[in-house]
Design goal:
globular, mainly beta, 1 helix, Immunoglobulin-like, 4-stranded antiparallel beta sheet
Length: about 120
Amino acid sequence: MIKTVCVCSLFCALACMAHAVTVSVVNLPFEEGTLFVAVFDGEKMVEGKVIAVEADRMDVQFDLSAYEGKKLELKAFQDLNGNGDINFDECGRPTKPCLLETLSVGNADQSLSFELQQF
């Protein structure tokens, strides 16, 4: 009886485990600065990460299991001057490498790759 309860508890725990979305930002134009990556549901930031850039590819993992079946926005930029802001020129174009993408959250672990754009 105790073994059955333990096995059932283990399967329930595994079934309820969050699945991960790994976002790889590839071909970074500069191997310096800080990478800001955030996931949004409308105007609400679901989760954000700030990491030091150490290579031309950086991986960031998010737990988006609560958003299964939804479309979310991924926003990212590479801060090169340390002010923590994306900055825009007089025409409204971003002055730092950045991206804005739509994510479709599935029901299993996902690995997605994106490149920052320079304007």
